[in-house]
Amino acid sequence: MERTTKHDDGAGRLLGLIPHGLYLVGVDAGRERFLYTVSWLTQASFEPRLIVTAVRRDHRGHRLIREVGAFAVSFLAQDQLELAEHGFRGGGDRLDGLHWHSCPVTGAPVAEDTLGYLGCRVRRWIDGGDHDLVLAEVVAGEIFREGALLTVAMTPWRYGG
Hints:
With 161 residues, the protein is mainly beta. It has one domain (10-154): Electron Transport, Fmn-binding Protein, Chain A (Pnp Oxidase, Chain A, Roll), CATH 2.30.110.10. The chain has three helices and nine strands. A hairpin with a 4-residue loop joins strand 1 and strand 2. It is globular and about 45 Å long.
């Protein structure tokens, strides 16, 4: 995630006001596991339960989710800014030092010290601009603890515009 606003005009500033939670997305391609921080995610349907997330086209997560067709979304609590930063970390295995397990349905990594997770299977990719949209069905979920979601507005970061 870039930590800047893309455009500082009126439209860009308004787009930056759209509320976004912070999440860790995990994907397991067998020979390669990956975990990264996302903010562009929303529910898209009650029945079936669908979510949409945006993934930058040149991002490692894009390639792996396309390959595997499944991922997990761990929900970060308000006191987990450091864990959100962990998802930006360069080099090495981002799962190192984290308590995690595999989603029993998708096999994707789930961060255990979070509010909980959703296991998701990709239903469709939608071509976008610099990000593509992933429409995914929620096939699993578990709450680990109660709490409020960390949002971009609570951080020093801006990602929008």
